[in-house]
């Protein structure tokens, strides 16, 4: 970590690089790690890919597979906690050395101790007090512990040659820091009776701690940890400590504080303003003064931010984008929640240019994800250089359509107008369907739907006439050569529209299957069957399950649908959707209660966003506000109640338990992953777990024959406990599945 960096918080990759160096992992392509460490805005998938492909194999080589899994998990957990800190606590005026000391005292030492405690509990390794005891190096202490815990260690040492013994002696005296390769080469004679993975893991951790102790922050970490173990831990609040440093910093430019307060109030987005030239003078003077002050430079991003707002209020979006770029770069890993506000303002402005600044939008989206303000919209785990690999088209429209929501017109300078397309949010109004005529001479023609001045959409005419269920026109288009594999830009296909017409979970559908039979009789490419829509993530195999008909599911599978593709806004598999429907059929009121009691997760908020066409805003916070406002609205409650009743009636009238169980069997038989982790009802839940909860013994047994792992666990959100199928059956009193699990328990290691 380079203390000369101006931004206080180290990036995620800087921390990973220090971890790699401390453990002496020496990964391939270290330059890529160095390049990533200097990037404040980056695709997190690149880092995850590097971690899995480059770092994990090195950890496995030196420690073992289970130990590697443990360490990667611990590192991910640390990053999750760290992200919350940098995303919420601003550190304007704090230097990098000051921040490293604060992190060592308040954050990193706790994570290190937790890792050591978990190592002791999970692998029976040395306790934290062995690693951090005062007076000797960690490696020395661990060698003493190994000698005590491994009875044949001394005899092993005696059989080594003099050079090897001298090297280990130098480690024990603290004269030399072992390399990872030297540690890994210790068990070169496969000595029986020594737990080599544990020995190597403990020595590597000790090596990393001794390496860290060379730095002031590392020594501070050790001192803090020792005090904590002796009951002398200090009261430490990261926010309070940062505020104390900031107060000292602000004294150096205290004369500017009244002007900063004036600008902060006057440049609010909703405040009525006059005199743009006067505000510009204030802003330019403030920016010049901050640049001249050594301590004030940490707030230059803040003046850039308000200059960007001034440009928006003046109607100059191009100038505003350039200023937002500067503010964005200066705010990252520094300004806490100000980062979020800057990013969200920059999104709507950059999206509103005549030609949207896609490079900037992509970097903004990366940072929303990296700082924990949003979740990925494109869920492909593989990094992509393409804009579409990070941002979906509907998002750009939503950002653009929300500019006047983020910057209300009352906050603009007098007389300013901005030419915006107000049609980017809200539903698509078609009006009279009869006005849209088919072109049989060009059966694959794309048509535009939507009223002028409103949102519009282009799609193949076969898809459109399938959507409105015009059977006769679709039949004629097919006779004229229309291709069922033509797809709209949003991913709509004729087969999907035909399946949605018979979707029993959506009240109001015709449930007329003639169109499905017609479209399904055509030759389809597999990619057509596995193409989902970009916004609502509608997927043919899931829509087939929601038809409640076995032969429909059979037909879609035969056409080439992959049962393990994921769809719906929360990325479910078809088997999971099927089991949820089984749960609804068994206990409709219980299903409703579960739905209403589901936690308000980012995925749930994203679902609201994807279905609301931008009218509820674009950020997850906007969706939360929308949800809470409507939750207490009696009109909305009545509407929700009527929708739920209509849904239940449709499901109960048009399918039954035996049919849905048959569908589940078809999906399992077709290779549906019974251990596929889902986001709902709880993150990490699997179809096998849901079958256990529902006490579906026959399905559960079939899943076991397909490799289902009942010992697989999810983390309970309330208790933090690992929950397997055994606990699920107990909690839900699933007697039949409980009998099965009792019979096979001896074959599994259950915590």
Whole-angstrom Rg: 30 Å
Number of strands: 6
Largest sheet: 2 strands, antiparallel
Structural domain tally: 3
Tell me what you see in this structure:
The protein has 751 residues and is mainly α. The chain has 3 domains: 12-236, no CATH class; 252-420; 433-672, Alpha Horseshoe (Serine Threonine Protein Phosphatase 5, Tetratricopeptide repeat), CATH 1.25.40.20. The protein is built from 38 helices and 6 strands. The strands form 3 sheets. The chain has a two-stranded antiparallel ribbon. 38% of the residues are buried. Mean pLDDT is 91; it is low at 1-5.
Task: List key phrases describing it.
751 residues; Serine Threonine Protein Phosphatase 5, Tetratricopeptide repeat; two-stranded antiparallel sheet; 6 strands; 2% strand; globular; disordered N terminus
Task: Give a short summary of the structure.
By secondary structure, this protein is mainly alpha-helical. The protein folds into three domains: 12-236, no CATH class; 252-420; 433-672, Ankyrin repeat-containing domain (Serine Threonine Protein Phosphatase 5, Tetratricopeptide repeat), CATH 1.25.40.20.
């Amino acid at each position: 970590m380079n203390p000369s960096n101006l931004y206080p918080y180290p990036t995620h990759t800087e921390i990973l690089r220090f971890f790699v160096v401390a453990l002496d992992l020496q990964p391939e392509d270290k330059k890529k790690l160095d390049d990533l460490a200097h990037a404040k805005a980056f695709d997190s998938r690149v880092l995850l890919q590097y971690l899995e492909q480059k770092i994990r194999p090195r950890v496995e080589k030196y420690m073992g597979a289970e130990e590697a899994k443990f360490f990667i998990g611990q590192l991910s957990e640390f990053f999750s906690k760290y992200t919350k800190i940098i995303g919420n606590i601003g550190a304007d005026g704090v230097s990098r050395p000051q921040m490293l000391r604060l992190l060592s005292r308040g954050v990193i030492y706790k994570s290190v101790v937790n890792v050591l405690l978990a190592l002791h509990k999970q692998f029976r390794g040395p306790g934290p007090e062995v690693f951090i005891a005062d007076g000797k190096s960690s490696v020395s202490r661990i060698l003493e512990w190994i000698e005590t815990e491994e009875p044949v260690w001394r005899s092993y040492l005696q059989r080594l040659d003099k050079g090897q013994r001298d090297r280990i002696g130098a480690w024990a005296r603290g004269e030399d820091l072992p390399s990872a390769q030297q540690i890994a080469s210790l068990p070169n004679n496969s000595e029986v009776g020594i737990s080599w993975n544990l020995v190597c893991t403990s020595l590597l951790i000790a090596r990393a701690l001794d390496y860290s102790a060379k730095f002031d922050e590392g020594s501070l970490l050790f001192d803090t940890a020792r005090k904590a173990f002796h009951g002398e831990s200090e009261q430490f609040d990261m926010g309070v400590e940062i505020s104390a440093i900031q107060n000292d910093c602000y004294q150096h430019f205290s004369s500017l504080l009244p002007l900063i307060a004036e600008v902060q109030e006057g440049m609010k987005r909703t405040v009525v303003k006059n005199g743009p030239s006067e505000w510009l003078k204030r802003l330019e003077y403030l920016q010049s003064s901050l640049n001249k002050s050594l301590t004030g430079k940490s707030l230059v991003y803040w003046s850039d931010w308000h200059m960007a707002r001034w440009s928006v209020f003046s109607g100059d979006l191009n100038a505003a984008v350039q200023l937002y770029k500067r503010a964005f770069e200066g705010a990252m890993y520094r300004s806490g929640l100000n980062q979020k506000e800057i990013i969200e303002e920059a999104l709507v402005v950059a999206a509103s240019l005549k030609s949207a600044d896609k490079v900037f939008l992509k970097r903004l989206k990366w940072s929303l994800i990296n700082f924990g303000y949003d979740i990925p919209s494109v869920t492909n785990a593989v990094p992509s250089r393409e804009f579409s690999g990070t941002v979906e088209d509907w998002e750009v429209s939503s950002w653009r359509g929300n500019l006047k929501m983020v910057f209300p017109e009352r906050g603009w300078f007098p007389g300013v107008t901005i030419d915006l397309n107000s049609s980017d949010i809200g539903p698509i109004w078609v009006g009279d369907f009869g006005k849209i005529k088919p072109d049989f001479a060009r059966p694959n023609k794309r048509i535009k739907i939507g009223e002028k001045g409103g949102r519009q959409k282009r799609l193949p005419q076969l898809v459109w006439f399938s959507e409105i269920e015009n059977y006769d026109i679709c039949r004629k288009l097919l006779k004229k050569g229309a291709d069922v594999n033509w797809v709209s830009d949003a991913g709509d296909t004729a087969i999907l529209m035909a399946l949605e017409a018979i979707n029993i979970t959506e009240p109001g559908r015709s449930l007329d299957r003639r169109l499905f039979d017609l479209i399904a009789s055509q030759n389809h490419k597999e990619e057509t069957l596995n193409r989902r829509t970009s916004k609502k993530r509608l997927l043919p195999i899931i829509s087939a399950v929601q038809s409640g008909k076995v032969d429909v599911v059979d037909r879609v599978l035969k056409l080439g649908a992959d049962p393990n593709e994921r769809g719906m806004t929360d990325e479910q598999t078809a088997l999971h959707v099927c089991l949820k429907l089984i749960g609804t059929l068994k206990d409709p009121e219980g299903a409703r209660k579960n739905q209403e009691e589901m936690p308000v997760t980012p995925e749930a908020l994203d679902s609201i966003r994807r279905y609301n066409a931008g009218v509820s805003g674009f950020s997850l916070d906007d969706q939360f506000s929308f949800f809470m406002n409507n939750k207490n609205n009696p009109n909305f409650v009545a509407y929700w109640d009527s929708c739920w009743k209509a849904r239940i009636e449709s499901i109960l009238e048009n399918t039954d338990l035996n049919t849905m169980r048959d569908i589940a069997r078809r999906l399992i038989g077709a290779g549906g992953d019974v251990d596929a982790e889902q986001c709902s009802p709880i993150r990490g839940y699997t179809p096998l777990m849901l079958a256990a909860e529902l006490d579906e013994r026959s399905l559960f047994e079939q899943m076991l024959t397909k490799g289902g792992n009942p010992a697989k666990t999810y983390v309970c959100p309330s208790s933090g406990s690992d929950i397997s199928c055994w606990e699920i059956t107990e909690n839900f009193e699933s007697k039949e599945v409980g009998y099965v699990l009792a019979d096979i328990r001896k074959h599994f290691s259950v915590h």
